[in-house]
Amino acid sequence: MKERGVQGAGVDGIARRVGLSGAALYTHFESKQDFLCTVLREELGASARRFLSANATLDEVLARYLSLAHVRNPALGCALPAITSEVGRSDEKVRQAFEAGLAEVVRALGEKLGSHDKAPGVLAAALGAVALARALPDDASALAVLESARALITSALQADVSSRR
């Protein structure tokens, strides 16, 4: 799903990747939507846990998220840049699972930031930058987008800290 998006996540292909047949997968899930909801919960939960990584500073989290490695290897990173635009065209059950997972990611990022109010904006800027960078054909252009977003996010957060003093 992180590589091909929600619509490109065929149940048979996903089942083969985990060593099952599509029929075997359907013994555990009633529909593709049920399967997608489970995958969304798992993937967004994993993203939230990465944001909460106790050993990583906010700068390290941003550097990892806004990196060429994350851009060029979607299967290894956050699912949000790959799936967000498609979820709006999905059924209500999938959108509700996405909303619950997104709330978990925003909460985790808010804890890392020390500001739950800033978390949605920081996340939107970061995932938008990754999605845009993925659409660009060369690393130099992608890196320019990522570095610009990181500078903008860092500047906005520093300005917020300064204004509270």
Q: Work out the number of β strands.
A: 0
CATH class: Mainly Alpha
Report, as a whole number of angstroms, the end-to-end distance.
44 Å
- According to CATH, the homologous superfamily is Tetracycline Repressor, domain 2
**Helical segment count:** 9
Q: Which percent band covers the strand fraction? A: under 5%
> In the CATH classification, which architecture applies?
Orthogonal Bundle
* Secondary structure category: mainly alpha
What can be said about the biggest beta sheet? none
Instruction: Point out poorly predicted stretches.
Output: none
Mean of residue pLDDT values: 85
Radius of gyration: 17 Å
Order of helices and strands: HHHHHHHHH
Number of domains: 1
CATH topology: Tetracycline Repressor, domain 2
Anisotropy-based shape: globular
Helix content: over 70%
